[in-house]
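Dear V.,

Thank you for sending over the compound details. I've combined the ligand you provided, copper (II) ion, with the protein sequence from our construct and run the structure prediction for the complex. I'm sharing the raw inputs here so there's no ambiguity about protonation or stereochemistry in the SMILES, which I know was a concern on your side last time.
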Amino acid sequence: MTIKMKSVLVVFVIFLSGCSPRQPTPVVSPQNMMGSGDAGMSPTATPGSMMPVKPEASHMMEPIRGENALPATETMGGQPLAYREEHGVKVFDVTAKPVLWPILDGVTVTAWTYNGTVPGPMIRVTEGDEVQIIVKNELPEPTTIHWHGIEVPNSMDGVPGVTQDPIQPGETFTYEFTAKPAGTFMYHSHFDGDVQVSAGLYAPFIIDPKEPVSKPDVDVTLMISEWLVRGGMTYAAMPMSGMEPNYFTINGKAFPMTETINVKKGQRVRLRLIAIGQFIHPMHLHGMPFEIVATDGHTVPDAAQLTKDTVSVAPGERYDIEFVATEPGQWMLHCHILHHTTNDNVEPGGLMLMVNVTE
Ligand SMILES: [Cu+2]
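Below is the predicted structure of the protein with copper (II) ion bound, written out as structure tokens.
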């Protein structure tokens, strides 16, 4: 072993010993935390599992705050948001607020939402539109919105402490930009993202092309995310020991409460897959192969389109897939990490839905 390697090892050991939890966390049981006392004894300790010793990191271990959260009045998330036109600008109102959101019969999460749904409402405009989004913060904590993948001016990018001050509880902030380019995008919180995004602050943002293109017969947007529900409390699910999710949702619902996509034989179907949680999901369609027609909102040229039946959607990615529904029947779309097709470890559940093709 070289001197350099030895010194790296010594520094690493000092780092690990400094990270040992000094007191039990109030939320997650110590046996779940890994590495308590001696990280070297724990073969699967992750950097995340060491973090609760830092006071500023403990927020992620606490339940999602739901003071004054009312039961959701809407049943479906991701629905188109109405707007008003003012001097040629499309103006949208978005309120960030907690609600109690059912993801399954008998399972309700405390969600932080845009306008009371998970996902929040879909903003859908045409390339080149001037848009204004008036954001009111009714959360108990500051927030901001990032327009993921959209080419906005830097001052509209929603990064707290960099491009803007956080929107404090009770405050309003107006975002304004020209919608471009065309494609599948999303908007989500960029303040305490590990907690706020996991809690539900995300929604689709679709920009349709200005020049007419051949439109699919069926066009469905599916946002994929994860939840940790324990003892009736909701926590921000993370790839971190003791904080892993036990529920998985498509558009805010776990199977069998996920939507069914109804299609007539011969129709061309576009599914816009968006992963907004912190886990990768290899989504597999039964019965019919599909083409990947756009990645992260950008059109894939015909000659470069892959024909697939499974596509892995990593956090932040979008894949637009298309297929012609040639075969009648009930065809399942599901994640192929099969633990993700369970509800609290019971199959079937989670990331499954039916594509129902009829004559
Ligand atoms: Cu998955």
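A first observation: Residues 281, 335, 337, 340, 351 surround copper (II) ion (CB under 6 Å).

Warm regards,
I. M.
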